[in-house]
Amino acid sequence: MPPAHDADPDVLAWAGAAVRRYAAATNLLVAGRRFRVVGPGPDASTLRAVLTAMGARHAPEGPVDQLWCTGDPAESTAAVDAHGAPPRGRTLVVIDAGRHVPAVDEDAFGPVVVARPGVLAVPHHADGVFLVSTGREPERDAFAAERIRWAGRHMPVSRAIAAQLRADRALAGVRVGVAMVLEPKTAVLSLLLQDAGADVVVYAHADETDDAVAAALRDAGLVVFASSTVDLAGQRRLALEMLDREPQILLDDGAHVIRLLHEARPELLPGMVGAAEETTSGLRPLRTMAEQGALRLPVVAVNDARAKTLFDNRYGTGQSTVFAVFDLLDAVTARDAVARLPAAGGTAAVIGYGPVGEGVAQVLTALGLRVVVAETDPVRALQAVFAGYDVAPVRTAVAGADLVMSATGVRDTVSLDVLRACAPEAVVAVAGGIDQEVATDDAHAAGSVRTTIAPRLERMTVPGTERAVVLVDGGGCVNVTAAEGNPIEIMDLSFAVQLAAVRMLLEHGAELPVGVHPIDPAADARIAAAALADLGLAVDSPRGPDPDGGAQGRASGVRTTRFGAPP
Question: What is the pTM of this model?
Answer without folding.
Answer: 0.90
